[in-house]
Each structure stands twice: as structure tokens, then as C-alpha cells.
């Protein structure tokens, strides 16, 4: 592949002997094999690590962008081919939203021990970045993008489906983590013909480890607040509180 031939133009962190052993251990956990370990190493390179190396190293965000597109295509095609006669487009969209969600990808990342191999900066390390869902999910997408560039579409597709088919099965069996924002919105639209309104009521903690507190209003009734490491997580928590109270 041309990308592999021109890899030197991409500033991937050097793979010295110790790092090579670490990456080979990851390959064993994930049951995949890279031709170029430099590309896999780049997939693990978080922005905070690249920034600390004064731009001598690239981050994994472009690989993440690519991996996100490949992931969406593979899941969409699988649903289309296997459930064409039994589902409508809305079902496809709902299932896909769950299985490619941050929660789902972060869980898969932990299963294959992505957190042990991420390259992050010291500040991010001290703030627990190695276990942050967003960082894990983004790295998972970057690995998918890197594997596609390294080995082609079919191996990347097989890798994705190995871990995503069980997640699809969970959704079909209603054993998945619930997207409470979507559930609440559907309930509120049906019951009140309106939408939930979310509001950040406060932020606590230092800048590097801030907690967001969000309330949600439904038909003039206030629920929450929910809390989370970011606004999105806090909104999900608030939506869960409201949904459970409205469905005792």
C-alpha cells in the first residue's frame, strides 16, 4: 500500500525494543497482526502525548476519523445484510447508535486492554486519562483506521465484527446499556408532544478534572441534577433520573 511505503512522512513514535514487545502483546490480546507496528503505535498516540513531544510526534486523531467511518460502514452493512426483512431503517439507526457509542467502544477497548498501551501525556495520566471513556473509544476507532490502512478492508471488517456482533446481540435482546436521552425524548414527544430541556446548573472541581451538573425539565417539572465528567455524560445521567421517575 502506498500509505505504508510513505509512512516515514507521518511522525509516528519510534518503536524501540521494549515498545515492540508491548505492541506485540496487544496484538495477542486483540487477535490481530500488523505489518507495520509504527502504524499501530501511532493509533495509540493521544494528543496530550504528541503535545508534550513538541510536534515531533503526530497524534491519532486522523486515524480516529478514518476508523469512525469504517466502523459505521461495517456495522451498517452487517445490519442491512442480516436484518433487511425484519427491520425498518429506524431500527438500523437505533441499533447502530448503541453499538458504535462511546460506552460500547470503551468497553471493547477495556476487554482488549487498550488502556494499558495508550501513549498519553503526564497531565492526562495524572487525571486518570487512561481510563476515560472518550479517550478509550477514540483510540479504538484509531486502531480500526490503522488496521484498515495496514491490512485492508476485509481484515478490518473481521476485527470489527468480532467485537461488535455481540454488542448488536445485546441490543436485540434488550441487554445493552440504555441511551436515556433518546428514551426520554421519545417518551416526552409521545406523552407531551414536546422535548426535554437540559441546563448545566453548575461545574465543580479543577479544570483538569471538572464535574458537570445538569438538570432536565419535562413539562415544567425539573429532574436531577445528573452529574458527569462532561456535559454529555451529565445529560445522560439527568435523563436517566427523569425517565425512571416517569416510569416507576
Structure characterization notes:
The protein has 248 residues and is mainly alpha-helical. It folds into 2 domains: 2-172, Ribonuclease iii, N-terminal Endonuclease Domain, Chain A, CATH 1.10.1520.10; 180-246, Double Stranded RNA Binding Domain (2-Layer Sandwich). The protein has 12 helices and 3 strands. The longest helix has 23 residues, at 61-83. The model has no long low-confidence stretch (mean pLDDT 89).
Given the helix and strand composition, which structural class is it?
mainly alpha
Q: Helix share of residues?
A: 55-70%
Number of strands: 3
Mean pLDDT: 89
Per CATH, which architecture of the largest domain? Orthogonal Bundle
Low-pLDDT residue intervals, each spanning 5 or more residues = none
CATH topology of the largest domain: Ribonuclease iii, N-terminal Endonuclease Domain, Chain A
Number of domains: 2
Strands ordered across the widest β-sheet: 1-2-3
Number of helices: 12
Summarize the structure.
With about 250 residues, the chain is mainly α. Helices cover about 60% and strands about 10% of the residues.
List the main descriptive attributes of the protein structure presented here:
three-stranded antiparallel sheet, single chain, 248 residues, 2 domains, 3 strands, flat, mainly alpha, Double Stranded RNA Binding Domain, Ribonuclease iii, N-terminal Endonuclease Domain, Chain A
Q: Helices, strands, pairings?
A:
Layout: H1 2-5, H2 17-30, H3 37-43, H4 47-52, H5 61-83, H6 89-99, H7 102-111, H8 122-126, H9 133-151, H10 153-172, H11 180-192, E1 197-204, E2 211-218, E3 221-228, H12 231-246
Antiparallel strand pairs: 1-2, 2-3
Helix pairs in contact: 3-9, 5-6, 5-9, 5-10, 6-10, 7-9, 9-10, 11-12
